[in-house]
Specification:
Radius of gyration of chain B: 35 Å
CATH class of chain A: Alpha Beta
Structural class of chain B: mainly alpha
Order of helices and strands of chain B: HHHHHHHHHH
Number of strands of chain A: 6
Distance between the termini of chain B: 121 Å
Number of helices of chain B: 10
CATH architecture of chain B: Orthogonal Bundle
CATH class of chain B: Mainly Alpha
CATH topology of chain A: Transcription Regulator spoIIAA
Number of domains of chain B: 1
CATH architecture of chain A: 2-Layer Sandwich
Largest sheet of chain B: none
Distance between the termini of chain A: 34 Å
Strand content of chain B: under 5%
Shape of chain B: rod-shaped
Largest interface: A-B, 12 and 10 residues
CATH topology of chain B: Hypothetical protein af1432
Number of strands of chain B: 0
Order of helices and strands of chain A: EEEHEHEHE
Oligomer: heterodimer
Largest sheet of chain A: 6 strands, mixed
Helix content of chain B: over 70%
CATH superfamily of chain B: Hypothetical protein af1432
């Protein structure tokens, strides 16, 4: 299975999907014009990955500084997908935020509360 | 279809409906949550942006203020090295503002000129003390050296990209040009001389004539006015001379408030 990388833009995060290493990483802001269209390749890649080649442990690093409300909805779908595969795959989910970014911290806390069966960890970013 | 078959189908339908309704309930609740959180987040981000914007604005003001002070200080340095004393640059600044305003320049430009004109003699910092502070009249050679201050001032300032300093460069360069083409350093004529140069020339002379200097007493007003009438269209832009007489009271008012204190 091929890796998928989408470069960071002004409105979208860096997306790194590495099947060989078993890493899913999102870094940056999320204000796409058409959120679901934009994230569709990522969602499809993930579904395919977990159906076929998933590693023993998959590391999911989310470092989202700012995001709009449709991205918020997208992240629910994202965690839904993980929720569905969690029994068959070991997941290591990190919500990474800057100490000064209260919004990002709170968003992480909210997701933990919403998906209590998912092993989401809050990680304060090292300077 | 048998009853059993029908019941099985109804059961299946019921189950399916319940699943769908549960999902719908979840989605509606979720949607509500998302909106609520997004609103809260956006409000915070808005506050943060406003705060940063305010910081940037204050920084901009700070920069402008610093620039003004530096420019004014440079003018004062030039003044302190020469025989001109007291509030000369302050008065020149006010006069140039009045001329610019009545000439019809936009307000922002008038204010800039008021800030730039005090630097008209900045080139004098490069004139040797022996010449600059010589009591009495200059000989030919000394006069030539003195006259280089216009070019020197321009050379000092012309490299800048800042509007204010570019304007000051023009002022320094052209404030000794004369309307009739007999000034220096380039013998520009009429409207070839930038309006900033024409304005500062008149403002500078008006103040110099009316002030007491080590080498001359202050001229009385009538003598100044007579000279201005004679030099209308010669040394000075006729339009500016007309503005001067038309708004004489305002020029004199500034002169009074910024009078040199005799110690």
């Amino acid at each position: 299975m091929e890796n998928l990388t989408l470069d960071e833009t002004k409105y979208t995060p860096l997306i790194e999907l590495d099947a060989a290493k078993g890493v899913i990483a999102l870094t940056g802001k999320s204000y796409p014009e058409n959120t679901f269209e934009f994230y569709k390749p990522m969602m499809e890649w993930m579904a395919e990955y977990f159906r076929t080649v998933a590693k023993d442990v998959t590391v999911i690093n989310l470092e989202i500084i700012y995001f709009n409300s449709s991205s918020s909805k997208l992240f629910f779908d994202f965690f839904d997908l993980l929720d569905e595969v969690k029994d068959d795959h070991k997941l290591d989910i990190n919500w990474i935020y800057d100490e000064e970014n209260e919004n990002a911290e709170e968003a992480g806390e909210d997701f933990i509360e919403d998906f209590e069966d998912l092993p989401i960890k809050l990680i304060v970013k090292e300077e | 279809m048998s009853d059993d078959g029908m019941l099985a189908e109804v059961d299946s339908l019921r189950e399916h409906t319940i699943v769908t309704l549960n999902k719908l309930t979840k989605d509606i609740k979720r949607q509500h949550k998302i909106m609520e959180r997004s609103d809260k987040r956006q409000q915070r981000e808005y506050d943060e942006l406003q705060k940063k914007l305010q910081e940037v604005e204050e920084l901009g003001k700070e920069i402008a203020q610093t620039q003004r002070e530096v420019v004014f200080t440079m003018g004062a340095i030039a003044e302190s090295r020469s025989k001109e004393t007291g509030n000369h640059v302050k008065r020149v600044a006010e006069y140039t503002y009045l001329f610019a305003k009545y000439y019809g320049l936009p307000e922002a430009e008038c204010t800039l000129l008021k800030q730039a004109s005090p630097m008209h003699d900045i080139g004098k910092v490069a004139i040797p003390d022996a010449v600059l502070n010589k009591p009495g009249r200059f000989d030919e050679a000394e006069r030539k050296i003195m006259d280089t201050h216009a070019q020197l001032g321009y050379d000092m300032l012309q490299g800048s990209k800042r509007t204010l300093l570019k304007m000051a460069a023009t002022v320094a360069y052209e404030h000794h040009e004369k309307w009739n083409g007999k000034g220096y350093p380039r013998q520009l004529k009429g409207e070839e001389i930038h309006i900033y140069g024409r304005i500062t020339a008149l403002a500078d002379v008006f103040d110099a004539l009316g002030s007491t200097r080590v080498y001359k007493p202050a001229w009385d007003d009538e003598r100044i006015f007579k000279m201005f009438r004679e030099e209308r269209g010669e040394h000075f832009d006729p339009a500016l001379i007309d503005i001067f007489f038309e708004h004489l009271d305002e020029f004199l008012a500034f002169r009074d408030t910024l009078k040199d204190v005799v110690s």
